[in-house]
Amino acid sequence: MTSPRSTTTCTARRNPPRRAREPPSSSSSSSSSTVAVAGAAAAAPTQIAPFPLDDLLLPSSSSSFPPPQPYSNTSDASLNLRVFLRVRPLDAAPRPRRNPSGADSKLLRGRSAPRPKVAKGKSGVCLIVNSASSVTLSAPPPLSSTSALLDSKRIKSEVYNGFSFVFPPESRQPEVFDRVMDPLLVDFMSGKSSLLVAMGPTGSGKTHTMFGCPRDPGMVPLALKKIFSYAVGNAARTTDDNFPRTYYISMFEIYSERGKGERILDLCPDGVDLSIHQLTIKGLREVMISTLAEAESLVACGMLKRTTAATNANSQSSRSQCIINIRCDRKSLLDGNDLSLGSAVLTIADLAGAEREKKTGNQGSRLLESNFINNTSMVFGLCLRSLLEHQKNPRKPLQKHFKNSLLTRYLRDYLEGRKRMTLILTVKPGEDDYLDTSFLLRKASPYMKIKYSNLDDFSGLSSQKRSNLTLICPENFKRRKLNDLELAVENCDASANEDSRESKRDIVVDDSEKLQEIEPSQVLNSSSESLATLDSKVGHYDDLYAQLQRVTRNEMIMRNFAKALWQVLKQYKQKLLESEGAIEILKETIGKKDNEIMELQKKLEELSSYSSCQMPLFVEEFSCRVDDQSTCHATRPQTANSDTADSVASSDSRWQNNVEPIEQGSKNVLSRDYGGKNIEFGESGVWEISCPVDLTESANDPLIGSEETCVEAEGVASNDTASDLHQIGHKEEVNNSNTDCSYSLVLESPKHPAKVQCSERLLYEPHGYQEINQEHNDSKGLKSAQSESMCNGSSKDDDEGILSLSGNKGPILANDSKRPLGSDVLLNEDPETKNEFQVKELPEREKHDSTSKPCNVKKSKRRLLPASTMLLKEFTGPDIDTDKPKQERPKASAEGTGRSNGSISLIRLLNALPK
Ligand SMILES: Nc1ncnc2c1ncn2[C@@H]1O[C@H](COP(=O)(O)OP(=O)(O)OP(=O)(O)O)[C@@H](O)[C@H]1O
C-alpha cells in the first residue's frame, strides 16, 4: 500500500499556471495576488503542507447559522434539489485572516484589503441579495442614449426566489460549509451517497468554493477535516458500532485536448489517462486515506495536476471538469469476518465555468477548450431540465442527454434523480457580468423544483445493478492494486506503518503469497485485463438485462392480449349457448304447431269428407243455375285454332247431380251461381267464361243482398297441387232485355289443365238473413271459392210495390231454380249463347289488357255496383245519380218511405216485370 504522502513526492504540474493577461475588470489586483498564492503553492512541489484548517474552521456553534441537519431527515420541502447561490465579492481580493498572527500571516501581511461590500444600489453591481433565499438581478444602465432607446423594452430587474440559501459576497467558507456540506457529510457518514456540484460562469468562484486556498480552504478540505475529526472521535470512543470505516479518495478530470474529444485523467499521483465504461472508469486509482494529512496531500497533488490556464476572465481558469470521490467503506468485524457492509460515496464536482469568447479572449486550443466546457455545461443543464420536465409531466420521457458527455454519463444516477444532488451556483455581481449571471440564474433556478421524493424506491433493478457495479469494480481493482502496492511498499519502505499493512495483508493473504512471485507490472497488467474482462461481462450483463426487460414486456403484452381474447371468446360462447337454447325452444314450438296443424288438417279432412258425403249444400249452392234442364259449357268458340279443343265438357256427373230441383214454391232464397262446376282447360291461355242468364223466371223474386254480390273464381291445377288459374277480368254485358243477362269471367289459364269454379250469388230472402258466409271445399279438399254477401231480410209490400228489408239470421238453404235478377249482370238477348256457360279465349289485345291487371283468387273480391242501380241506370237513364256521394243525393223519396228514388224505382220495375 502507498500513502498519499508518498504520491505527492512526484508532483509535476501538467499544465503549469500561466500568467494571464491583465483582465479588463477591476479585479486585476486580486487576480495577481491569487496567482501569487497559487504559484507559491506550486513552488514547493515536494511537500504540500496541509491546509490550516484548525484556525480557519469556524465552529458551527459560533456561526450565526443553525446547526446542520442531514438532508435525508429534513421535511418534505427539503426533498427538492437544494440549490445554493453564492455571490462572489466584486473585488475578490484575499480576505484578511481572522487571526493575523497565525502561521500563514506572512503571506497576507501587508496585503490585506478590506472585504468588498456589495451595497444595495451601489453602482457597478447588477445583483442584490434580498434575503436568505432571494436575489434581484438588475440590468446595467445603457451606455448611450441610442442603446437606451433600444433597451427601453428590456426587463429592468428580475427577482429569483426559492434558493436554499443565498450567500452574500461577504460570506465565508465555513459558513458555506455549514450550510452546504455539513448536511451532506452527515448523510455520507450514515451511508448515503451524495453529490455536490459547483456551477457558474468562469471566474465566479467555483474552484474557490470547492477547494479554496491554503488560507481559505473550501468544501473539500473542510469536509476531509470533518471526516477525520469524526473518525478520531469515534476511535477515541472505542468503536463505531463495531463498524470501522475506511476512507478512499479518487480524483480525476475530464478535459478536451485541442478539441480532440473528451479524455479522462487520473489526478492521483502517477495517474494515467482513463476510459469510461457505463458508470465505471477503467483504471481509476482509489487511494485509501487514513489520516487527514494524507488526504490533504492527495487533494493538493490532484489540484496541482489539474488542467488550468490563464484567460482574460480568470488568471487560473479551470479547463476541465474535476471530480473527487471520497468513499466510506464500512466493514463488519463480527465473528472475525471481514464483511463489507456497503459503501457511500461523496462526490464533489468542480465544473469548468461557461465562458464567452468575447470576455475570455481565448483563441486556438483555448477556444476549443471553451467549446468543450460550454458544451459540457449545456449537456449537464439539459439533463437536469429533462429530469424536471419528466417529473412535472411523467408522460414526457426522460431524455438521454447524459450520453452526450463523459461527465453526465458518469453522473447519470444523479442526473436521473436516483441519488441526491446539491447544486451551488456561483455568480459575479458586477455589471460586466450581468449576461453571465442572468444566463445562469435563468437556466439553473428552475432546477430547485426537481424532487427526490422517491429516492429509495426510484432506483430500479438496473440502477441498483449499476450502483453495485460502480462500487464493486473499484473495490476489486483496489484490492488487487493494494496487493501490488503493498509489496512495493514492503520492499522500499520498511518503516511504514506495520500495523496497517499487516491488517491489509491479512485481507488478501492468499493472493499476496502468489503475488510475491510475480512482478508488480505483471500484476498490474493482469489486473487491467481482469478489469477489462469484468467490464466486458458487465456490458454483456447489461445487454442481457435489456433483453430480459424486452422479453418481460412482450410477455406482459401477450398475456394481456390473451386475457382479452379469452374474455371475448367466453362472451361468444355464452351467446352461442343462449342461441342454442332459443333454437330448442323454437323447435319445440314448431313441433307443437305442426301437431296442431296436423290435427286441424285431420279435422278438415273429416269435415270435407263429411261435407262431400253428407252435405251437398255447397255444391248445390255453387252450381250453375242456368236452368234446371240446361247444361253448362266451357267453350272457346272464337279462336282460330280451337277446332279440336274448343268445346270442353262442362257438365260432369257431379254437376248434373248437383243440379237438383229445390223446393218448388219456396221463394225464400234465390241463388244464382256461376261456378261450382269444373271446367277443364286443355291449354294455357286466357279464357272467358260467360253465361247468359234468363231472368224472366225470377223477375218477381224479392232481392236481397244484391249490393254485395261477389264473384270469385279459382283455378285448380289438374293434379290438385297448385292453383294457377287467375281471374284477370270480369265482364258484364247488358242487353236490351230485362230478362237476360250475360255474365263473364275472364280467366288466365296456366300451362297445365285446370279446373275452374266460379260463382255469383244473388240472394232473395223475404224474411231475411243478415249475413251469409260461405265456404266451399271441393271433394278433393281444395278451397275453390268463397262468396260473401250482406243481406237483409226483406218483405214485399205488393200494394205499395215496395220491397221492405228486414230479417233474421239463419242458414242459407238450397235455392229454387228461379233465375235471380242479377244486380251486376247485364241483359243479353243472344239466343245462341243463352243459358250456355261459355269459355272463350280472348284475342291477344285483350290478353294484354287483362294481364296488365294482376288478379288472383283472393284479390278477386270486389264491390260490384248494386244491381238495382245498374238496372235503373239502364232503364231510366242518367237521372238517377247513384254514383254521386251520398250526401249529394236526395235524402228521402217523395213517398216519405225513407228509401231512395233508385230503390223505389227498382222495386216498381221489378213489380212490373212479367211473371
Ligand atoms: N468568495 C470569494 N472570496 C474571495 N475570493 C474569491 C471568491 N470567489 C472567487 N474568488 C477569487 O476569484 C478568482 C476566481 O475564482 P475561481 O478560480 O474559483 O473561479 P472559477 O469559477 O473556478 O473559474 P473557472 O471556471 O474559470 O475555473 C480566484 O482568484 C478566487 O480566489
Automatic annotation (TrEMBL):
Protein name listed in UniProt: Kinesin-like protein KIN-6 isoform X2
Chain's gene name: LOC109707071
Family indicated by similarity: Belongs to the TRAFAC class myosin-kinesin ATPase superfamily. Kinesin family.
Binding residues annotated for ATP, in chain numbering: 200-207
Comp. bias regions, Basic and acidic residues: 831-851, 881-892
Example of a GO cellular component annotation carried by this entry: kinesin complex
Gene3D superfamilies: Kinesin motor domain
Region (Disordered): 1-41, 90-119, 634-655, 776-915
Ranges of biased composition (kind: Basic residues): 108-119
Organism: Ananas comosus
Domain Kinesin motor: 80-450
Alphabetical UniProt keywords: ATP-binding, Coiled coil, Microtubule, Motor protein, Nucleotide-binding
Compositional bias segments (type: Polar residues): 784-794
Keyword ATP-binding attached: yes
Coiled coil: 569-610
GO terms, biological process: microtubule-based movement
Top-level taxon of the source organism: Eukaryota
Molecular function terms, GO-annotated: ATP binding; ATP hydrolysis activity; microtubule binding; microtubule motor activity
Biased composition (Low complexity): 23-41, 640-653
